[in-house]
Amino acid sequence: MDMSCVPHLSVFERQILATSENKEMFLEKFEEMMPAAPDAAGEQAVMTPEGGTRTTYFEIGPGSQRNKLINGKLGKIRDSHEYETSVTYKGVKIPIKVPVAVMPETVGDLITTFSTPHSQNPQPFPLHPHLTTNGPYTHPVIVLVNALLTQKRIVFLGHGRPSGEVANHVLAACYLASGGVLKGFTRHAFPYTDISKIEELLYVNGFIAGVINPMFANQARWWDVLCDIDTGRIRISPELKPPPLTDGLSFFNLNPNMGVADYVKHDTMDNAFMEDISHCISSRFGEWAVRARWRDWVLRFTRMATAFEEAVYGASALWIGHEENHVIKGHGYVWADEALKTRDLTANAARIEGWRGTRSYLTLVQESAQLYQAKPIKIVDLHHQIDRLRVLRLSHEDSEKIYMVLKHYVDDYEEINQLLCVIPETQNGIFPIAFGLFHPNQKVRFAVVELLEKISTHMAGRHFFNNMNRFQRLAYIRLKQERENSGGFSPVATEAANGVGSFSTTTTPTTAAGVPRFAAFGPNGRGGP
């Protein structure tokens, strides 16, 4: 199988591609890797009376993915999320589509696997802090996700069903808890096993296994959670012991109104989330929409876990940075108010404590350190600042600081990629940035125009830019014309040159050697230690 023309994507490019439904995202990467098609029979160009050639389009292949001849070159209408190649078997070429942006644990088809909800004929679960985060009537799929996150022993039982169908359930379950963010599930997944291997299986902590022998249903000591494919129900083993008391649980028990002992009274919003997922499936939104929502849910959970560790233990291994060096303070998940933050952390405390120390947690800690080194912008938490624009009702001064930081620190290709990763299409895309076009301060409006100009010329950013609504487009065109009529001078640059403003040479952050940020960025990115 020839994979020589698969484009090489950075970690940010893969994330952008995986969270976008646009079929032309990074299409230029394919064109760069695609060799020039040689002249061959069937490739024709129509001669004009002047002796030149004119463009000809004709279909030379069947199906929806058709080849076309364009100016004598063979091209394909393709989805940039997939690489099309073939394997020759007994003289027959078999077409194969290879996913380009495969995120961690992205396996299984969520739509076909979980279109029939496990919550048919619901029955109450026995309470367990790690699993029933919304009380006895926690959604069964959430119980399964909690079991995966907290590394419980999970068995999928499909008596009399094909082994391939059982294996598909195991693989799809891996994506449920992964969401394209976490790792460590497929390595300890056994898509199909039998009773002869039970001794070896029980040595594995937190396995995910598929079986067809009904004897497993009667041996509750072999599993913690049993998913019966035939009935669509999930069972919690009566032999599963409650977790020990931890510092995190004790910390929130100090609040008499919101103790962990009565955690079932606090809504984790999981049931509302599952209603949204069910609506997506019933409305045939497509697998991409469901996967995107799962990714947002898992990412939200990991960011809440970071805030939980900082509140309980004073620091978190999931966040690496030096906020004292940031040009604008703040990092991590953003809540509308402290009461909502306390409610969410209390409701998720048991689940977070159960996740800490698992394989997926430890892997995420390692990858967080690697991702920090890959970030070109370390001097500001872009995700946090964008969330502030989305969630909070900021004053004009606070929003001005954010827009000015974005304008000055998001400049080259990888820096724009880092920004695009925190404004996915599922979260209104570029809208929080474009909203700055209506800021009362002209300096801020012009700064947003300059930032949008950079995004519009970016390989992936142009697709985000094109998704702006008509109202934002008109404001952008008007402000751009207004800036040109004023002589092309940016009030931001003018203030900086005159030694005033937030980003003048007298207030610009400097490196450890005292060099202004605009003069030397260093090998570790802007503002990196």
In whole angstroms, the N-to-C terminal distance is: 44 Å
- Beta-sheet strand percentage? 5-15%
Provide the succession of SSEs: HHEEEEEEHHEHEHEEEHHHHHHHHHHHHH
Q: Mean pLDDT across all residues, rounded?
A: 79
The outline comes out as: globular
Number of helices: 19
Structural class given helices, strands, pairing? alpha/beta
What would you report as the Rg, rounded to the nearest angstrom? 27 Å
Low-confidence stretches: 36-75, 254-261, 496-524
Number of DSSP-assigned strands: 11
Pfam families: SPA
InterPro entries: Actin_polarity_regulatory (IPR052809)
Protein name: UDENN domain-containing protein
Layout of strands and helices, then pairs:
Layout: H1 11-18, H2 27-33, E1 46-47, E2 53-54, E3 67-70, E4 73-76, E5 82-89, E6 92-99, H3 110-114, H4 140-149, E7 154-157, H5 163-178, E8 189-190, H6 198-202, E9 208-211, E10 225-228, E11 233-236, H7 247-253, H8 270-282, H9 287-313, H10 338-355, H11 359-374, H12 382-391, H13 396-409, H14 413-420, H15 431-434, H16 442-456, H17 461-466, H18 470-485, H19 491-497
Parallel strand pairs: 7-9, 7-10, 8-9
Antiparallel strand pairs: 1-2, 3-4, 5-6, 10-11
Tell me what you see in this structure.
InterPro entries: Actin_polarity_regulatory (IPR052809). This is UDENN domain-containing protein. The chain has three domains: 11-99, no CATH class; 103-374, no CATH class; 375-529, no CATH class. β8 (189-190), α6 (198-202) and β9 (208-211) form a beta-alpha-beta unit. It has 19 helices and eleven strands. 40% of the residues lie in helices and 9% in strands. α9 packs across α10. With 529 residues, it is of the alpha/beta class. The relative contact order is 0.09. The chain has helices at residues 11-18, 27-33, 110-114, 140-149, 163-178, 198-202, 247-253, 270-282, 287-313, 338-355, 359-374, 382-391, 396-409, 413-420, 431-434, 442-456, 461-466, 470-485, 491-497; strands spanning 46-47, 53-54, 67-70, 73-76, 82-89, 92-99, 154-157, 189-190, 208-211, 225-228, 233-236. It is globular. The strands form four sheets. It has a five-stranded mixed beta sheet with strand order 8-9-7-10-11, covered by helices on one side.
